[in-house]
Amino acid sequence: MGIIEKIKEIEAEMARTQKNKATEYHLGQLKAKIAKLRTQLLEPPKGSSGAGDGFEVTKFGHGRVALIGFPSVGKSTLLTMLTGTHSEAASYEFTTLTCIPGIIHYNDTKIQLLDLPGIIEGASEGKGRGRQVIAVSKSSDIVLMVLDASKSEGHRQILTRELEAVGLRLNKRPPQIYFKKKKTGGISFNSTLPLTHVDEKLCYQILHEYKIHNAEVLFREDATVDDLIDVIEGNRKYMKCIYVYNKIDVIGIDDVDKLARQPNSVVISCNLKLNLDRLLAKMWEAMGLVRVYTKPQGQQPDFSDPVVLSADRGGCTVEDFCNHIHRNLIKDVKYVLVWGTSARHYPQHCGLGHVLQDEDVVQIVKKKEREDGGGRGRFKSHSTAPARISDREKKAPLKT
Ligand SMILES: Nc1nc2c(ncn2[C@@H]2O[C@H](COP(=O)(O)OP(=O)(O)OP(=O)(O)O)[C@@H](O)[C@H]2O)c(=O)[nH]1
Ligand SMILES: [K+]
Ligand SMILES: [Mg+2]
Asked: Biased composition, Basic and acidic residues: where in the chain (predicted)?
């Protein structure tokens, strides 16, 4: 029996089993069995490189966004509108057969947008080009799930299930469970609060299913058995997802209103060019990019050419900023002067660990420069805030 058949069989058994206190342990065990099989399914077949079979596109820009959706929801139309790169669009399904990259220029940054073939139910098990599409989505920073506003809401659930089946977790943070395998000592199970979904016995059973007999487990939130399995598997990818409802030109205003009020959702129409600005703004916000402008001593910063940092990719500290400019820079840095929302006063003298925020301005003070003369007075004379700071100052949160 193949892996997919085995998964189907267990799913059928779960559907047959009534949910109650007595069956809870058995159901937990079945969930762990499915998770293990799904992990096996994701392993590249023997003899292949494991790459996306011609789908891999070189990363470009400050972040990557994937367009995921059923066929003919308007993914290619959207790519063409947002990036100017033409991607064939037509009324028949599976018009797009490969991965097509475009670039969005937004807020002085470049974002790579990827158009992909439509995926269908069963994609996670390899139907259509599901596997390749999913591999590309996993390589992105966020996902735009494109949906046809005139079609059933069920599509969003089906797609979410497909992505979950391959270990993607959308708009969710990692479970607050500490888990560490040990060599000896048995299993230590603890929690910092009362648990309502998982007890010690269930946890033991799940670990037993994974043949783990020595480990430390500490629940820091009232997590579920699915959360526990995610933590044990350890290969989950937590991503932001924006639900993009396209084609609102063909539905009534009441329905548009309902969709627009859902969390993480944007309603658009490519045909009428409706709300695309809002989509871009949401996308930008979800990516959490941090633009930092370098201010050479005695000069104004170049506000068109930021260093772009991200908390998810590489971090946002002064050290990350310096490494971004040049990998040998760090050893020459004495401290930096910071203007912007991360600074308590302007300019603030900050060390390497200081966490920068979007639109901060940084001036690097090198060790050598200081010794060479000039000293503090010299910095003072150049420490006037750059021109754009005055309006930014109004936004600056008051910190004590
Ligand atoms: N009414 C309406 N139709 C749209 C809109 N956007 C796209 N379409 C149409 O929807 C059809 C499918 O568009 P595509 O861009 O090819 O969709 P896709 O998701 O890339 O499709 P596949 O590549 O086949 O998965 C085309 O006929 C488009 O003209 C819209 O905002 N409103
Ligand atoms: K199409
Ligand atoms: Mg397409």
From this structure: 366-375, 389-400
DSSP states of 257-300 as a string?
HHHHTSTTEEE-BTTTTBSHHHHHHHHHHHHTEEEEEE--TTS-
Give the angle 16-21-26 at the CA atoms, nearest 5°.
50
State how far Cα 263 lies from the chain centre: 16
| Structural domain ending residue among the three candidates 256, 287, 318 | 287
Ligand 1 within 6 A of 250 CB? yes
Summarize the chain as % helix, strand, coil (round to 5).
35, 25, 40
Do residues 145 and 193 share a domain? no
Task: Give pTM, 2 decimals.
Answer: 0.85
Distance CA(29)–CA(34), nearest Å, equals 9
pLDDT tens, 246-282? Answer: 999 999 999 999 999 999 999 999 999 999 999 999 9
Coil, strand, or helix at residue 315?
strand
Residues with CB under 5 A from ligand 2 (ion): 72, 95
Same domain, 195 and 326: no
Contact 325, 356 (CB under 8 A): no
Is the shortest distance between the CB of 80 and ligand 1 below 6 Å? no
Distance CA 343, CA 138 (A): 35
Nearest ligand 1 atom to alpha carbon 77: 15
Which ligand has an atom closest to residue 118 CA?
1
Q: How many domains does the chain have?
A: 3
